[in-house]
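Need a sequence for this fold. Nothing fancy.
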């Protein structure tokens, strides 16, 4: 249903026939100048926690196949799979021993081929994780590299002599362990560099042979027919050749966004061990390779830096850089307000003038969206359920692509240690090293609750999942929300499918309007549609004057309530209003 502002009949007729309906047809005919990934909704699947079909307590590739109809029902354009490659699983697959083999825990290569075929049959693209910053210390490349200092792979990793007193070469700190990022190796009698775990030695991206071999690994998956890569830790590839010390972060220095303030790594500026300017050139061959495979996308993770919006913008600026990049802008643990969202949107417009932004609101490395944006709002009041429905609507209206992490569509809360996950069940090495100072990442990795009343919430028929399933997640299970038209899951579905039918959201620009708290107002616009988006990001009711917008058609089929008195729009707590404006 739509509400029309009272005006002449001719405008109504022309708007519907010549504008709105024609827009949907024209959008489908104009894809030649528009890439699918520019506006994609990418659903991240953490394979270990999605669906177990072998009763071993770990999710697998067949589990994804079994739930492909659910994924399709969401209305997403693509899935991004966390690593399923051969690995000792010390970091849940981000420590790889063979980049071309499927780890038996998750299945085999034929399972992946079948998954790819079925996903494509649903019209869903498939991205795999390109973990090319480091390998496992059990990888054959590293095993050979550590043998001596003159073997063919001696320079494939970052090795350095100790200082005269035997201490590490410099002051670089590990992002996970909070201690020196250098590990002594008794075999080679040198230190090797790692940014995450000692079992994840850094590949030497200054070595062209390393880059060439990584491209061959990527080519293998592209030849199978995947639709692109999510590039893990892409801003970590290049280190300072001279191994200079990182400067100490001053008391008034810029604090890195998206980093736990209790992590010891923040004591230093991130200047020499990663986020190097040379990295922007190092990524060129990846983009060039993917260009040979049609519309294969490169999506880079650019986080753990002082200004992730600005830096991620650099990663997509220019034809030889990445297609998309995401940052830490919305991975914050603070109240969400209209002012904050407006500031972020303005900054993104500045640093992504030609697009390439991918919004990230949660993933396997950060706390659950609902638990980061919870507690109290900017006014000191608890967020009601309506807030999370409003956030779903807001996120699908932002320009660019969006990553949606499994379970966030259900509104899952963070699993807490020790209440939901006993200390002896902590799996994350980051959490094992720093808990309780830093809780780690297990809280966002617990298995998907498929069924409220089934054993293990329908995730596994085995005795025990690899991580416990919190009792509080049962009331948010998929089957329970499927049955409730007003559930958050169904709001996400409704909004994602509606988004596909709005040309301005698919390929339009954004025009931010100057409004005060608590209103966030912008117009998404393209040649065929102008869509007014009004969000009350407050616990309190508010009003908005629509008279400045002329003729409009209000959207009423999305389940969001509002009142109109003439041109005065009245929105309740966390209320939303959409309207098509006259072109």
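Here you go.
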């Amino acid at each position: 249903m739509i509400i029309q502002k009272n005006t002449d009949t001719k405008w109504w007729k022309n708007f519907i026939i010549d504008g709105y309906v024609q827009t949907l047809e024209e959008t489908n005919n104009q894809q030649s100048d528009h890439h699918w990934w520019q506006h994609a909704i990418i659903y991240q699947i953490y394979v270990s926690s999605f669906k177990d079909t072998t009763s071993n307590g770990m999710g697998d590739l067949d589990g994804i196949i079994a739930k492909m109809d659910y994924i399709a029902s969401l209305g997403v354009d693509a899935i991004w799979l966390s690593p399923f490659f051969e690995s000792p699983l010390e970091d849940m697959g981000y420590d790889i021993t063979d980049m071309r083999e499927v780890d038996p825990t998750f299945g085999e290569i034929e399972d992946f081929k079948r998954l790819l075929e079925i996903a494509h049959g649903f019209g869903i693209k498939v991205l795999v994780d390109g973990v090319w910053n480091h390998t496992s210390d059990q990888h054959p490349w590293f095993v050979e590299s550590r043998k001596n200092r003159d073997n063919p792979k001696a320079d494939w990793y970052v090795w350095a002599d100790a200082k005269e007193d035997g201490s590490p070469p410099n002051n670089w700190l590990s992002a996970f362990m909070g201690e020196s990022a250098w590990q002594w190796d008794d075999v080679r009698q040198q230190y090797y560099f790692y940014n995450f775990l000692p079992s994840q030695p850094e590949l030497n991206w200054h070595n062209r042979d390393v880059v060439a071999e990584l491209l061959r690994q990527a080519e293998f998956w592209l030849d199978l027919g995947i639709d692109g890569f999510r590039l893990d830790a892409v801003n970590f590839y290049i280190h300072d050749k001279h191994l200079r010390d990182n400067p100490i972060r001053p008391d008034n220095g810029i604090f890195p966004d998206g980093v736990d303030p209790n992590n010891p790594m923040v004591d230093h500026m991130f200047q020499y061990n990663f986020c190097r300017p040379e990295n922007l050139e190092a990524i060129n061959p990846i983009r060039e390779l993917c260009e040979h495979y049609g519309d294969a996308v490169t999506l880079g993770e650019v986080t753990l830096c002082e200004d992730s919006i600005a830096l991620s913008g650099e990663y997509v600026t220019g034809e030889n850089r990445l297609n998309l990049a995401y940052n830490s802008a919305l991975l914050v643990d603070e109240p969400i307000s209209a002012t904050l969202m407006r500031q972020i949107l303005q900054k993104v417009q500045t640093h992504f003038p030609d697009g390439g932004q991918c919004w990230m609101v949660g993933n396997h490395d950060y706390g659950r969206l609902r638990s980061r944006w919870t507690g109290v709002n900017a006014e000191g009041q608890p967020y009601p359920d309506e807030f999370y429905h409003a956030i779903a609507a807001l996120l699908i209206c932002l320009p660019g692509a969006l990553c949606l992490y499994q379970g966030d569509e259900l509104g899952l809360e963070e699993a807490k240690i020790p209440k939901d996950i006993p200390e002896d069940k902590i799996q994350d090495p980051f959490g094992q090293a720093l808990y309780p100072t830093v809780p780690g990442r297990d809280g966002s990795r617990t298995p998907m609750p498929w069924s409220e009343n089934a054993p293990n919430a329908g995730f596994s028929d085995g005795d025990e999942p690899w991580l416990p399933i919190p009792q509080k997640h049962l009331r948010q299970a998929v089957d329970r929300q499927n049955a409730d038209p007003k559930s958050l899951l169904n709001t996400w579905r409704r909004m994602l499918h509606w988004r596909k039918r709005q040309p301005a959201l698919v390929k339009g620009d954004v025009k931010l309007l100057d409004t005060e708290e608590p209103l966030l107002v912008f117009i998404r616009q393209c040649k065929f549609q102008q869509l007014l988006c009004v969000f009350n990001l407050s616990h309190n009711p508010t009003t908005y004057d629509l008279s400045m917008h002329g003729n409009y058609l209000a959207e009423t089929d999305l389940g969001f309530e509002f009142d109109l008195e003439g041109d005065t729009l009245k929105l309740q707590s966390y209320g939303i209003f959409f309207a098509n404006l006259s072109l």
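For context: Residues 495 and 572 are 19 Å apart (CA to CA).
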